[in-house]
Design goal:
Strand content: 15-25%
Helix content: 40-55%
Structural class: alpha+beta
Largest sheet: 7 strands, antiparallel
Strand order of the largest sheet: 1-2-3-4-7-6-5
Number of domains: 2
Radius of gyration: 25 Å
Number of helices: 9
Shape: elongated
């Protein structure tokens, strides 16, 4: 199960109910605990559901509504007794649609911001991934990205060009492809780990709030120190474990 699949499943999740006992929802909730971006989305989802529940609790049912619906239906067209209930259900559906129109943008803002992008990409680096192409050749990686129509005309910092590359992968972001380059910094690695330095490259237009051209912005996200910068029409995100100095040597 990936993040997008989990998000689709969790759209039907209602906090405080037996929904969490469903195996698919339980798996999606477990992924949300590990993935920062999905976890943040889930918090908004639960908050939205609580507000929506409270709003429905406060909707008064007009006196005589059922009788009015029945009386306005001509006798010759009147269907079995359950038919008026369907009309009431339709009315409730209209109210729900109106409330979704009002509250959806507030609780589900378009998640194309720089912060969400950083969280999602660093979550991929932290939680494990499979490299699509294993090679120590930077040229072969560019060719692979170009063939797959992922960003390939990127510019690496001089110091990063000297670091050993071990492979690459292509990630998804807002219907755009993200080029992920995997490096080995030269520091000792844990068992079964082949890379400890990751660079993500994506078109600037797909990241809302991307930094202006200038020095890289350094921050820490879930234990990884990151640097993000804009050059030309691309946004670059570099991450590794350690402190600020661990990363600055590659900028």
């Amino acid at each position: 199960m990936n993040v997008n699949e989990a998000r689709t499943i969790l759209l039907s999740y209602r906090p405080g109910t037996a929904d969490a006992e469903d195996p698919q929802i339980a798996a999606a909730l477990a992924l949300a605990q590990r993935d920062p971006g999905l976890g943040s989305w889930l918090e908004n989802h639960c908050a939205y559901q609580e507000v929506l529940h409270a709003k429905f609790q406060n909707i008064p049912v007009p006196a005589g509504l059922k009788e009015q619906i029945i009386s306005e239906q001509p006798a010759r067209e009147r269907l079995p007794q359950r038919h008026p209930r369907l009309k009431v259900a339709a009315l409730v559906g209209i109210i729900l649609l109106a409330m979704l129109t009002i509250f959806w943008p507030q609780f589900y803002p378009k998640d194309d911001t720089l912060a969400v992008y950083q969280n999602q990409m660093m979550g991929i680096a932290l939680n494990g991934y499979g490299m699509d192409f294993l090679t120590n050749s930077a040229t072969e990686i560019r060719c692979y990205f170009a063939k797959k129509q992922a960003p390939a005309n990127y510019t690496l910092p001089d110091s990063l060009q000297k670091v050993a590359v071990v492979g690459c992968a292509i990630q998804d972001w807002q219907k755009e492809k993200v080029s992920m380059l995997c490096f080995r910094s030269g520091r000792p690695l844990p068992p079964n780990q082949t890379t400890d330095l990751w660079l993500f490259v994506v078109p600037r237009t797909s990241v809302r709030g991307a930094p202006e051209a200038g020095p890289a912005q350094i921050s820490t996200i879930n234990g990884l120190v990151t640097a993000v910068w804009t050059q030309g029409d691309k946004v670059y995100l570099l991450g590794t474990a350690g402190d600020k100095s661990s990363l600055q040597q590659f900028l």
